[in-house]
Fold this sequence. Notes:
heterodimer, A: alpha/beta, Rossmann fold, 2 domains, seven-stranded mixed sheet, globular, disordered N terminus, B: 312 residues, mainly alpha, two-stranded antiparallel sheet
Amino acid sequence: MNRSTPIRGIAVALTAAAVLAPAMPASAQDIRIGYAIARSGPWAVGAQVTQEPNYVMWAEQVNAAGGLNVGGKKRKVELVAYDDRSNMETVVRTYEKLMTSDKVDLILPPWGTGANFAIMPLAAKHGYPMLSCTAAGRKLIGMKNPYFFALLQQPDVIMDALAEYMVARKVKTAAVIHVDELFGLEMYTGLEASMKRKGIQIVEKKSYPLGIKDLSPVLKGMQAKKPDAFIGLTYPPGTFLSTGQSKAIGFSPKIFYLAVATAFPVYRDKMTPATVEGVMGIGSWNPKTGAEAKAYFDAHVKRWKKEPDRWASAHCWAGLQILQAAVEKVGLDRKKIRDYIAGTEHATIIGKMRFKGSENVSTPGVVSQWQNGEFEVVWPPQRATSAALFPKPDWK
Amino acid sequence: MSLPSPSRMRGVPFALVLTAGGGLVLATLPWLLSDFLLALALSCLMFAALAVSWSMFCGPTNYLSLATSAFFGLGAYVTAWGLESMPYGLTVLVGGLVGAAFAALIGLAVLHLRGAYFAVITFGLTELTLHSVTYLEKTYANTAGRIISEAPENTVIYWTVLAVTLLAIATAILVRASRLGFALSGIGGDEERAQTLGVNTRRVKVIAFSLSAFFPGALGAAMAVRWTYIEPLSVFNPFIGFQTVLIAMVGGAQTLLGPIVSSVFFSLLTEFLRLRFPYAFLIVLGLLLVVLVLYLPGGLASLFVRRGRQHA
C-alpha cells in the first residue's frame, strides 16, 4: 500500500503532463518547422547521415543570418523535432501532432520511402508541402499527391545513366543482384528495360532479402560467368557485404557498381580508400561540383566533424534551399508555397531543379566512382568532375 | 468454450457490464480529443488489446509467445490485399480469422515445446512469415510493398480498434470463467497432472492459442490503413511482439486488469518521454523497467490486488 501511492502518483502526473502540456513556441515571432525523424532504431543510421544534420545546420545558418525574410521582416526558425523510433505508427501520430496540435508553420519530411508514404495523406489533408530527400520510387510519384515533391532521381533515371555509361565503354554483359525492397525492385525493373534497349546482356540475376549475412556463393557463381559488369542494387548492409566478399574472392570485373551507401563517407572509411578505388555507385555531386557545393561541404565538415554523403545529403540541402526561397518569396501561406515549388525552376547546390508533378525532372541520373578518396562524378559528361577509371583496378 | 459452472460465473456479468460501460465512454472520445490525442488513445487501445489477448493464453499457461508480430503482420496484409474488394470492417474480421487460423496451424506443430524453445520458435516463425510474404509478393506480384489508396476516416479506425479491444476484454473475461480457462490454468500449473485428470491438453492449447491470435490479426488489419504503404518489414515488426510481452508482464499477465492498466501506462509514458526527453527516453524507460521488475515482480496488478485485500 505504501509503495503503491508514489508509483500511481507518478503515473497520474506523467499522464496529465503528457496530455495537457502543448509544445510552447520559443517566441510568437518564430517560424516553427516541425518534423519527426529516427534517432533510435534501424532507420536512425541513414536518417542521421543524410537528413537531420542538414535540418539542424540549415536552421542554425538561417538564424545566424537573422532569420528568414517573411514580407520584409526577419523571423527566426524554430525546429520542433521528435524521434519517430523507426516506427510507422509513431511517424503518423507525430505528424498528426505537428499539424493539428502544435500547428507548426511548415514541416520537413521523415526518413525513408515508407515513412514518406505514410504521411502523404496527412500532408494533402492539412496542406503541408513536403520536399522529400530520402524517398524514391515511381509508386510515390504515381500517388499524384499535389503536396509531395521527390528531390532524388527516380530509379529508372538512375539506371538509364548507368546503361549509357556502359554503352560508352562497350560493355556487353552484366551480372545483377538486387535487394527485395521497393527500391531494389524498381531499380531492377528500370535496369532490365535499359539493358534491353542498349543491347547489354544480363547473364545472371539474383535477389536477396535485406538481412542477408552471406553473399559469397552468389558472388562466386557470378564470378564464374565472367561478366563485364557487376551491378548490385543494394541497400547499405548489402553494399558493405558485397564489397568485402567480392574482394575476398577476387571478383573484380571491369565495372563494379553498388547502389545505396556507396556515396557514404563511412563506406570509404570502413572499407579503406584503397579498397574502394574504382567502385561505382549512385551519386549526384561532390565538392568539385561547384562553389556552392564546396561551401556546403565545408560548412558540414566544420559543424559535424564529418563529411556529408555524396548523394542524398545535397538533395536534402537543395530541398531546404527551395523551402527557404519559397518562404522568402511568398510568405507562410502553405498553398502559395506549394504552388511556388510546383511552378518554379529552382536554383540549388546540385543545379537547376524543376518539378513535373511530384518528380524532379532536372537532375539527371549520375554515375559516380571512388578515386583517391573522393566520389567523383564520371557520368554524364556534362556533370563529370573526373574521367572514369575503366576497367576497375584490381582489389587492394 | 464449455458451459461454465455457476460459481465461476460469479462476477462475470458485472465485469462485462463494466467493459461495455467503459466502451461507451471511450466511444465518445473522437468528439472530445484532438487528432493527436485520439491517435494516442488509439495506441493505448491497440496495446491493451494485444496485451490482453496475449495474456489470455500465455498468462495461465506460462508460455512465452513472440508470434504476436506474425499475426499482426498477416492481418495488415489482409487489408493490403483485400481492401479494394472488401469493406474495411470485413477486412478486420478476415484479418482476425487469418490470424486465428495461422495460430491453429503453427499451434499444432509447436505447442508441445515449452520455455525458451517455444519463445525462440515463435520468434523464428515471425521471421519465416516475413520472408514468405516478401517472397510471394516478389514472385507473383513483382512488388515489395502495397499501397492503400482509400483509407477510412480516423474516427472509423478508432471505433473499429475500440470494438476489437472490447471484444478482446470480453473474451478474456469469459475464458477466465470458463472450463477452457480452468484447463489452461491446469496446464500452467502442471501439464501432466492436467492430462491425467482428463484434460485434452493439446486440444485446449491449440484452441486457446488460436483464439488469442484472432485479436492481433484483427488489429493488424485495422491499423494498416493508417500507413498508406504496407511492406513486410514494417508490419512484421518484432518490436510489436516484444512490447506486447513487456506490457503484459509488467502489468501482470495472470490478471485481466494488469495488462490493460499497463498498456495505458506504457503508451502514455513512452510518448511523454519521447516527446519531452528525446535523448534520455530509452535510458529512463530501461531504468523504469528494471525497477518495476525488481520491486513489483507480480506486475502493476499486484498493487491493486494488495490494496483490494487490505480493504476486504
